[in-house]
Amino acid sequence: MKSKINIRLVGIAILAIIATVIGITIIYYGLFQKRIRVDLSVSAKLLKDTNYFESASVDIQKIDLTTDIDELRVTWIDADGTVLYDNDATTELLSNHLDRPEIKAAFEEGIGESVRKSDTMNKNTFYYAILLDNGTVLRVATDAQSLWSVFVSVAPIIALIILLIIAICVIISHMLTIQLLKPIEMMAENLDDADYESPYKELDPFSEKLRTQHMDILSAAKARQDFTANVSHELKTPLTAISGYAELLEGDMVANEKKKHFYHEIHKNSERLLALINDILRLSELEQKNHEPVFEEIDLYQMVEECVDELSVNAKQRGVGISFEGTSKVVRGNKEMLKELIENLTQNAIRYNNEGGKVSVSVNERDGRACLVVKDNGIGIPASEQQRIFERFYRVDKSRSKETGGTGLGLAIVKHIVELHDARIELDSAPGVGTTISVYF
What are the beta bridge partners of residue 298? Predict the structure, then answer.
């Protein structure tokens, strides 16, 4: 980045120098041309005022301006365009000048000017013609460098100046780059410090965005680390139990009357292990950003009714009463996910309830939105625990969860399904009173 800034600063400096040289040269060349025209005009008027060319009877052979005016060409033209005198050439060799633009303008308007370029000499010749009182025209001319020749002549100086300025720019740009980037580097070093203020106010949104992303990455890394540790622990528990029971059975160290109990424990832990693996895979599937679920119009009332009917047997086995009420509400969502959401919430209400407890599930409309409400009068959740119940493997009552077959991932799955459906979930719970979970679609 530093080298790019240096190169661009030097490039800008070179372009600025070239543009400045071109601009100044063009401006001063224009002033130079104007000065030449003024000088020619003054010279022509001075020669006219001498009355040197006024008399038609003047002896042309006696006119000699070659030594008096060395760089000024003087030409005297008759009314018919014939060259009467030229201090730089023999008149017999010169053609008729009546077609020359400056001569034609002088005869018509009294004064004529023109500039003609010599490609071979790479020079411009400036002409100024003035009409004399006797009807003849006096023309003066001088040569000057063309614009391109001016550029060529100053090219070595320009090159030297560019090299000098490039050297200065390299040093200055290097110092400027360090000065500009040092605060940014300090900001990067203090990315974890929420109280650190960015050195440039223009970087505030960028700094805040970086800090937020950085914290999100750290949070995600910690969550991944915790998840890995929790998965290892959760999988290790049933595997250790299965391995221990199997080892005892293999060594024939279990009495016949206890073998049935061991087989039952192996089966129970196998089912728990399978449930854990299924929930982990399901959670991983829901977290995939490129996974786009298929949405359709679904009657939420009908789906809840089916789920409650399926879970009524489970509720009866645990001594929990379950009821359902509501009205038909159509929502747009994924059928499989919504069924999973309803089952998880209802199973939790049954699992974390007391014998003789009640679970009620309803579908209605609140604030213009379809709402699913699952309510129980079970053990409830303390206020201090309520913010964490949607975390993976978090359990309010760990012993009860394991006894009833809970994996600790049900509400984490519910949370992801709610987010995928742009829904909102609310929790109202108190220990000994029960829990109410509402999902607004």
Answer: 331
H or E stretch at 285: helix 256-287
Query: Hey, what domains does the chain have and what are their CATH numbers?
Result: 2-150 (3.30.450.20), 206-287 (1.10.287.130), 296-440 (3.30.565.10)
Closest CA to 320 of 404, 429, 383: 404
For residue 380, the SS3 value is: coil
pLDDT in tens, 271-330: 777 877 777 777 677 666 666 778 899 999 999 999 999 999 889 988 999 999 999 999
List CB contacts of 262: < 8 A, sequence separation 6 or more. Answer: 245, 248, 249, 254
State if pTM tops 0.85. no
H/E stretch holding 164: helix 147-189
Task: Output b/e per residue, 265-281; b: 16+ Cβ within 10 A.
Answer: ebeebeebbeebeebbe
CA distance linking residue 376 with residue 435, whole number of Å:
5
Identify which of 163, 177, 176, 175 has the alpha carbon closest to the alpha carbon of residue 17.
163
CA 378 – CA 351 distance, rounded (Å): 9
Query: Which amino acid does the sequence have at 272?
Result: R
